[in-house]
Amino acid sequence: MKVKLGIKNCLYPMPTTLIGAMVNGKPNYTTIAHVGIMDLTSVSLGMNKSHYTNQGIKENKTFSINIPSTKMVKETDFCGLVSGKNDDKAHLFKTFFGTLETAPMIEQCTINMECQIVRTVDFPNHDIFIGQITETYCDEAVLTDGNVDFGKVQPILFVMNTQNYWKIGTKIAKAWNIGKELSSQSECLKHFY
């Protein structure tokens, strides 16, 4: 039996990311899980307007998305608990820059994406930043056959409803493949009836 939950977004878990931006000339990082895929080379960030990082993104028109592993859960959570207005969170990490030069990235994160703003959408309480990925950096150690292996990355997953962090499980099937079994079963059943 189905139970009504009210208006509740159940698209979680989401990967927890550290968003980097230069604010007042200094690298700043904030924890955001509301990161989306717009298309294969574009992303979106849903960030509350109160975030200090927003002003750096607006000013420089750039940001980075850094994917921390489960080993970085304390640092990642901390970056969501304190504001860059009051605390220098960049001291927790080794920062590097890529071609954009205004999107600070975290060396300890195995995946880093440099992004340039394409559009900002003004929601009542949130800035929605839509960015084009200009370059992606990845540690060799998390690649398998030249592709990112998320079993090796071990990203931190976030669930809003219970406000908990989770870790990734194991692969269950090959995408765009496992469903073919239903197609062949469907054909068999047609011939049977």
What are the low-pLDDT stretches, counting only 5+ consecutive residues below 50?
Answer: none
Structural class: alpha+beta
Radius of gyration using CA atoms only: 19 Å
For this structure, the quaternary state is: single chain
Arithmetic mean pLDDT: 94
Helix fraction bin: 10-25%
SSE arrangement, N to C: EEEEEHEHEEEEEEHEEH
- What is the 3D shape? globular
Strand content: 35-45%
Our measurement of the CA-to-CA distance between the termini, rounded to an integer number of angstroms, reads 32 Å
Task: Please give the number of β-strands.
Answer: 14
Sheet with the most strands: spatial strand order: 3-2-6-9-10-5-4
**Number of helix segments?**
4
Report the sheet with the most strands, covering strand number, pairing sense and barrel closure: 7 strands, antiparallel
Helix-strand layout with pairing:
Elements: E1 14-15, E2 17-23, E3 26-32, E4 35-39, E5 42-48, H1 53-60, E6 62-67, H2 73-81, E7 95-96, E8 105-106, E9 111-122, E10 126-138, E11 143-144, E12 147-148, H3 150-153, E13 156-159, E14 164-167, H4 180-192
Antiparallel strand pairs: 1-13, 2-3, 2-6, 4-5, 5-10, 6-9, 7-8, 9-10, 11-12, 13-14
Q: Would you give an account of this structure?
A:
There is one protein chain. Helix content is 18%, strand content 39%. The chain contains 4 helices and 14 strands. The chain has helices at 53-60, 73-81, 150-153, 180-192; strands at 14-15, 17-23, 26-32, 35-39, 42-48, 62-67, 95-96, 105-106, 111-122, 126-138, 143-144, 147-148, 156-159, 164-167. The strands form 4 sheets. A 7-stranded antiparallel β-sheet has the order 3-2-6-9-10-5-4. The protein has a 3-stranded antiparallel β-sheet with strand order 1-13-14, with no helix packed on it. Strands 7-8 form a two-stranded antiparallel sheet. A hairpin with an 8-residue loop joins strand 7 (95-96) and strand 8. The chain is globular and about 65 Å long.
